[in-house]
UniProtKB/TrEMBL annotation:
Keywords: Hydrolase, Signal
Signal peptide segment: 1-21
Domain called Peptidase S9 prolyl oligopeptidase catalytic: residue spans: 437-647
The protein's name: S9 family peptidase
SUPFAM superfamilies: alpha/beta-Hydrolases, DPP6 N-terminal domain-like
């Protein structure tokens, strides 16, 4: 009872009218107060994840009264992961564990279930099936050494879900299993095994597993179709399309929608008839790939596609569908925001909506579709007033090779946008990710201190078509950096940036670029901050989790090549003699993507050249900052270093 009382008090404080104070570094580094808000199928309860004592807790609320009915919080180093409403009363959730030497959590594949009032708790699936499951008082169940993920909640069946399970072994690939699991007893029945390694599945509208798809060890597409109790190679269905990814079935189950590519252009949405394998391109953007696809919970069919060419855009498969109309109504009611329908009731009449933009990390609303009533629920981070945040403005320019490059400028609020100190912030990846028109707490913190921030979707970035992405392959130290340098020069030429007050700071591949760019243009940057960066490209083939992954070495050979001379030419560890910028290196000892050996290699190169540098290493952090206090400390160190080098008071 004390537990529920405490959470009720917390909820009252968060729902109370908020008085904004000037935001602190702690405010920018904090986790969202609310996230993953989901409504029960009958619309009577809400689930919401909140962070308490640096751990994820699942709070369940009576929607009418907005009072807690139960809270799932584990003892010790355990916390709640993703969760799912599987019927009106029951939730299935993942259990995570904090690593002893790391701030981040790890998922060992355990699924647990509980009712909204805390009753009928059950350990459903996992290796610890016959053991204790922590303070949530989950009961025993038969153990299985596999990692489970909810594949389908089977909306027409209150007792069962489909679970996709990856058996444990010592290899980097497994053949995926699908089980039908009783959400009350944990009893399970194997439905099928994937015909290819590390596969995913697509379920049709009759709740039958119909497609299995994956990439092989050489990163080639593999697609199989289930028919007459066997898996059949479905290459004929995708034909000459590449990067083929099934999204959903059409309502009659005779066709599927898929994201795919043809001739190196931007990815498009295709409708593919299964019997004839006939393709029909239904939606394609000239400049960008689909960012998000919208699937109806009622029909399991595609109804809208989201793109982002500077700002979010939406295109509809059927503009007259109820879902398309609801999305358009929400866009009109909450203008200048990215709209996401994050959860809905089984009848589709009540929606949980998240609205966010460049100045707002996310507000949650309840939308009554029948009565057209929109009710504000709460802000993801109430400490940050969107009215006090800075604009993120889309930009584009033509680079030295005649290619149009897109990006974003965060422009500090309340000052003239001329001759500003500038931080260039290359994104990670580099292949696949791209920068978006979103709220970025680190960039907003810099803008609060009068520093503009430049983000560049350089060649090699995802989101602009296959040809654009592949044009950055084997060009990490050339074309990609040239685009970053050309973007910086663009900001200077347009009068935004003071050419004498420019620094570069990035994480992961961005950390690589933060060191590589000043080596190619030594007079352009006053300082460079490498966070969790890779600096020795030869080493990428030997250390870290990429070469250990299925298809990882093939990927590295494709995007980096295997020529040692070229790898060294693109590695910052071999070009310290070209540096003029002041350097700060930030790293976590438990980083598995860019292991600490990368930091040590860069540090060794700097020492051998007697080049001065600053550093900060966290013993429990990995690839980025999981702990909010550590993130705040990083922000403090970063901001102090930038202010000193950019002459910002």
């Amino acid at each position: 009872m004390l537990r529920i009382l405490y959470l009720t008090c917390c909820l009252f404080i968060l729902f109370a009218p908020h008085t904004f104070a000037s935001p602190s570094i702690k405010d920018f580094s904090a986790y969202s107060e609310f996230s993953e808000v989901k409504i029960s199928p009958d619309g009577k309860h809400l689930g919401v994840i909140l962070i308490e004592d640096e751990k994820r807790t699942l709070l369940i609320l009576n929607l009418e009264k907005m009072q807690p009915t139960y809270a799932v919080k584990f003892n010790g180093e355990e916390e709640v992961g993703s969760y799912y409403w599987v019927n009106d009363e029951r939730i299935v959730l993942q259990k995570l564990y904090k690593k002893p030497r790391q701030e981040s959590s790890v998922y060992y594949g355990e699924l647990l279930a509980v009712n909204y009032d805390g009753s009928k708790s059950k350990y459903l699936f996992g290796y610890n099936g016959r053991g204790s499951s922590g303070s949530a008082n989950m009961s025993d169940n038969e153990s299985i050494q596999a990692s489970a993920f909810v594949l389908d909640t089977l909306k027409d069946d209150d007792k069962y879900i489909y679970v996709m399970a990856y058996p444990w072994n010592s290899l980097n690939y497994v053949y995926t299993l699908v089980y039908k699991v009783n959400v009350y007893s944990g009893k399970r029945k194997r439905i099928t095994t994937s015909p290819v390694a590390n596969a995913s599945f697509l379920v049709d509208n009759n709740e039958e597993v119909r497609f299995s798809f994956a990439r092989d060890s050489k990163n080639n597409d593999q697609l199989f179709y289930y028919d007459n109790n066997e898996w059949i190679d479905a290459s004929r269905i995708k034909g000459d399309l590449t990067d083929f990814y099934p999204i959903s079935f059409t309502e009659d189950n005779k066709s599927i929608y898929a994201i795919a590519n043809s001739e190196g252009n931007t990815r498009a949405i295709y409708e593919v008839e299964l019997a004839s394998a006939k393709h029909q391109k239904i939606i394609q953007h000239d400049i960008v790939d689909p960012l998000k696809t919208w699937i109806s919970d009622q029909t399991n069919t595609l109804y809208a596609v989201e793109f982002e060419n500077g700002y979010p855009e939406y295109r509809f498969v059927d503009t007259e569908s109820n879902k398309a109309k609801a999305l358009q109504q929400l866009m009109a009611a909450i203008p200048d925001h990215r709209i996401r329908i994050v959860s809905e009731t089984i009848n589709g009449n009540t929606l949980i909506v998240m609205a966010m933009n460049d100045k707002n990390s996310g507000d949650y609303y309840l939308f009554d579709r029948q009565n057209l009533k929109l009710k504000f629920l709460f802000a993801g981070n109430a400490a940050l007033d969107p009215n006090e945040m800075s604009e993120v403005r889309p930009i584009s320019f033509v680079n030295r090779d005649g290619v149009t490059i897109h990006g974003y400028l965060t422009l500090p609020r309340g000052i003239e946008h001329k001759n500003m100190p500038l931080v260039v912030n290359p994104h990670g990846g580099p292949h696949g990710p791209r920068d978006l028109w979103v709220f970025n707490p680190e960039n907003q913190l810099l803008a609060q201190n009068g520093i503009a921030v430049l983000q560049v979707n350089f060649r090699g970035s995802g989101g602009y078509g296959i040809d654009f992405e592949e044009s950055g392959y084997r060009a990490w130290g050339s074309k990609i950096q040239h685009d970053i340098l050309d973007a910086t020069q663009y900001a200077i030429d347009q009068g935004y940036a003071d050419k004498n007050r420019v620094c570069v700071s990035g994480a992961s591949f961005g950390g690589y670029s933060a060191l590589m760019s000043p080596m190619l243009a030594p007079d352009m940057f006053k300082c460079a901050i490498g966070v969790a960066g890779v600096y020795d490209l030869e080493q990428m083939f030997e250390t870290g989790d990429v070469p250990e992954s299925y298809g990882g070495k093939a990927f590295l050979k494709e995007v980096l090549g295997s020529d040692v001379a070229q790898l060294r030419a693109m590695s910052p560890t071999h070009h310290v003699d070209k540096l003029k910028a002041n350097v700060l290196l930030i790293h976590g000892e438990e980083d598995e993507r860019a292991p600490i050996e990368q930091f040590e290699a860069m540090e060794k190169a700097l020492k051998q050249a007697n080049y001065p540098y600053q550093k900060q290493v966290w013993d429990k952090e990995g690839h980025g900052f999981y702990n909010a206090e550590n993130r705040a400390k990083y922000y403090e160190i970063m901001l102090k270093f930038l202010k000193e080098n950019l002459n910002v008071k």
